[in-house]
Amino acid sequence: MEDYKNKIKTPLLATDGIIKLFDKDEIFQGIVLIERKNPPLGFAIPGGFVDVGEKVEDALKREMKEEVTLDVQIEKLLGVYSDPKRDERFHCVSCTYICKAYGTPKAADDAKNLQIYKLEDIPFDKLAFDHAKILKEFLQEEANLF
Amino acid sequence: MEDYKNKIKTPLLATDGIIKLFDKDEIFQGIVLIERKNPPLGFAIPGGFVDVGEKVEDALKREMKEEVTLDVQIEKLLGVYSDPKRDERFHCVSCTYICKAYGTPKAADDAKNLQIYKLEDIPFDKLAFDHAKILKEFLQEEANLF
Questions:
Q1: Residues of A with CB below 8 A from B77's CB?
Q2: Could you tell me if residue A83 is left (phi over 0), alpha (psi between -120 and 50 degrees) or otherwise beta?
Q3: Interface mutation target, options B12, B80, B85, chain A, most CBs of A under 10 Å
């Protein structure tokens, strides 16, 4: 059985979070983008790998805490992004969630810096991976709510 | 870089499809459940592992063709199911989609047998993995459409 298990090769599994940041009066501040410390450089929504033995939602909450020091509430699954070319390093599938958080994020771990962007100011030309595509789908999703 | 890649361990990635089967007059026939040939035994929605280099949606279409000989159209992502205990063999995350298909399915590959179930006849007590939970969420999702 161990042999059988070791023969199965599937893509790496990651999770990313589009964090909608609110102040204590429930006023929307923007979404949190990090500036990456490691290649590929550029801006990105925060995220990371799912550990074996960990639920994807728990991995997301852990990564958001590690990278931007926020406790997030998950609102919904936006999509599963799995184009083999979305990450030039290896085939990595992202389960991407929309989340909500309060407070003041700080860049940590893989994040060199972070910035809060209003939806109309998202720097689409500076985004790493397929995060421009993901954020366009997010804007579409948010637009559908109204 | 190769070393770095090999150190990353994430759960196995699979994809499963809830296939809504229609006849040529667009009359709903039921959903397709397979009887598993390999342990864990029982009924299940068809599915399988995602290959490295393959999009999850392509893996789903390939698996549906291999296991039940149907060409499916993907309607929507139902959810990502990642409880480490959902599969007793290993930690395996399923991206589960709702699909539509026409024609006559045949059991092949991992499927010993298959059966078409009307929504009110789904054998919840005979389902492997967490497929009872998944199919309950599917019924909820379908109910929300009306």
A1: 77, 79-80
A2: beta
A3: B80
The CATH number covering residue B62 comes to: 3.90.79.10
Domain extent for A29: 10-144
- Structural domain contains residue A125: yes
Q: How confident is the model at residue B145 (pLDDT cuts 50, 70, 90)?
A: confident
How do the pLDDT tens digits run along chain A, 146 residues long? Answer: 556 667 899 999 999 999 999 999 999 999 999 999 888 899 999 999 999 999 999 999 999 999 999 999 999 999 999 999 999 999 999 999 999 999 999 999 888 999 999 999 999 999 999 999 999 999 999 988 76
| Chain B interface, Cβ < 8 Å to A | 1, 5, 8-14, 49-57, 77, 79-80, 82-84, 89-91, 93, 95
Amino acid occupying residue A132: A
Instruction: Judge: A9–B52 Cβ closer than 8 Å, yes or no.
Output: yes
Distance CA B134, CA B78 (A): 8
Distance from CA of A119 to the nearest CA of B (A): 25
Structural domains counted in chain A:
1
- Chains A, B: CB pairs < 8 Å: 77
Q: How far apart are CA B76 and CA B78, in angstroms?
A: 6
- Tell me whether residues B79 and A77 touch, CB distance under 8 A: yes
Contact B13, B49 (CB under 8 A): yes
- Per-residue pLDDT tens over the stretch B43-64: 999 999 999 999 999 999 999 9
**Overall pTM surpassing 0.80 (yes/no):** yes
In a domain, A2, yes or no: no
